[in-house]
Amino acid sequence: MSTIRDVAKEVGCSTATVSRALSHPEKVSKASLKRIHAAIEKLQYRPNMLSQQFRNKQANTIVILVPDIANLFFSTVISGIENVAQSKGFNVLLGDTRDSSEREKNFIKLVETKQADGVIQLRPYSKNSMLPKKFVTAVNACGCEDTPYPAVRIDNADAARQVTEHLISLGHKKIGLISGLTDNPHTIDRLKGYKQALAQAGIEFDPALVAEGDFTLWSGLNASEHFIRMTDRPTAIFSMNDEMAIGAMKGLKAKGLKIPEDISIAGFDDLEFSKYSDPPLTTVAQPAEKLGEKSAELLFQLIDGETSAQNEYVLPVEFIIRQSTAPPRS
Amino acid sequence: MSTIRDVAKEVGCSTATVSRALSHPEKVSKASLKRIHAAIEKLQYRPNMLSQQFRNKQANTIVILVPDIANLFFSTVISGIENVAQSKGFNVLLGDTRDSSEREKNFIKLVETKQADGVIQLRPYSKNSMLPKKFVTAVNACGCEDTPYPAVRIDNADAARQVTEHLISLGHKKIGLISGLTDNPHTIDRLKGYKQALAQAGIEFDPALVAEGDFTLWSGLNASEHFIRMTDRPTAIFSMNDEMAIGAMKGLKAKGLKIPEDISIAGFDDLEFSKYSDPPLTTVAQPAEKLGEKSAELLFQLIDGETSAQNEYVLPVEFIIRQSTAPPRS
DNA sequence: CTGTTAGCGCGTTCAT
DNA sequence: ATGAACGCGCTAACAG
């Protein structure tokens, strides 16, 4: 591999001029510029980024901590982040943490050792979270309430309340809930909204109507079986995400239940395929790509040392009524 | 942030000793080692990896080119790669290429500029592929036949032949095929195996029995509708991956067809949920994690300059018969 | 076992 | 507009 010196020698100028030609072309004469580019082409010169980064004390890289790269919602958030990062000339390192704090720690170490300039965490904050840490510029892209570091989020409780209110307004009184893991912050926030809506309507909360899932399709399917076995089955189900809702629909239909005639179901996230499910799913659209973009912008503000940065952004959601919800059989 | 010099000053030794304490502790006295570690702790010293990498001319990073990070098969291959990389102390950069060669090019540039030491490509090779390139150490983890650079793969044709032979041995003569995109190398290899099996059994290949999909669940569903509309419907279907098979099963069942009584179906990949599908899917298990591990090992051999490295590994598959295939109605 | 010295490739002064 | 010189933080070679 040729270095900047080889190019300088080829052109017959100093390395400083070559460097300038690349970083500040306006400070170099047209003539030199031309010859330098010719030499670069001829020698197949590629600046050694390791050297540049070392010199500039910036890796031009951010890390995204993703609990599950196969999750469609996360993929969309990642897209948003990548859009912004690319326009800033930053690389994006995807940290596939698989919900392991050990693996998370390793990725965070990349920032401590300067291999990356900042972190975007997609896992909502909880006590056992690695972040925040000293020396680590970080932002949460899928925040929950009371995240103790800069975060972008939606109002989960409010959104869950809207869904539940919708079901109540259709006339449902027994509303099943497919939750995420009990200690997941999003579960907690959304459960809060679910309870709020029930309370407002004077319906008592019934723990027997809650089936715990883990946000995967299969856990939704299992949850549906829980409801099917009940003697006094709910007439509607609110699933804390679309994947579980789709799993549940599969389970319910397999047992011969018609949706929404026999049982209504609503989800959360608005995945791409939720509008193609059978029937199309009533759900809450999270601005997933926007969450990614906003969090990336926020992170770059912090990296650039802008202290004025607001440290919480709550983005609006969109409640979408499709064909999976209807009034209960009278 | 403190540097190696601060630590040396604190301890009262030279920077070289501190450096050795970290990289070659056996060359440093116990006493010094102890004081150095104390100083590191006190000063919260973290070696600047940018500097190390620059000095060592190694980023200790490999890039995985992934066409679709939300694909379950790829996630598993990635796991395998990460296992090996971690044990080698390498970082893994996930290049989410979304099938865009523009994005692929950007990630490959990371190697050209030394920010990464090698590439593992998950997309099978085809003419328009960016790799191989000069100065870029690369390996393909999901190879097809005639990949022009080091690759790890399964024998796609042979596996497809096995599946088709199984269906033929059950007594099927009209065997539908749900293929991937026509120009996808895996489609080509698997189609070859399908045709071989038919030829061996003296069954003529009928293009009308081939429905083109794109490896997504939805394309499998669409394909099923194609078969349902046929007047002389196949009694069995071979789908080139499990996702399409599951989509097709959904479509067939929706039209009241029973699987396998009315129609048999076999897939390819053995996704985690294929054993839970209804009915459990007959399929070919790809050693996805092994493909990842083997390709990573191969890449590290190349990075370490081992020229003796074999440049193609064909890993065995496992054909798994479950309940989605049975003899045709007589 | 330890210190001294030199230099990796680049960008940025400060001269000219 | 250009060049000479320096140094970023670290490690390897050599000498002691």
From TrEMBL, chains A, B:
Keywords of the record: DNA-binding, Transcription, Transcription regulation
HTH lacI-type domain segment(s): 2-56
UniProt-recorded name of the protein: LacI family DNA-binding transcriptional regulator
UniProt GO molecular function: DNA binding
PROSITE patterns the record matches: HTH_LACI_2
Organism: Thalassomonas haliotis
InterPro entries listed in its UniProt record: HTH_LacI (IPR000843), LacI/GalR-like_sensor (IPR046335), Lambda_DNA-bd_dom_sf (IPR010982), Peripla_BP_I (IPR028082)
SUPFAM superfamilies reported in the protein's UniProt record: lambda repressor-like DNA-binding domains (SSF47413), Periplasmic binding protein-like I (SSF53822)
PANTHER family in the record: HTH-TYPE TRANSCRIPTIONAL REGULATOR GALS, LACI-RELATED TRANSCRIPTIONAL REPRESSOR
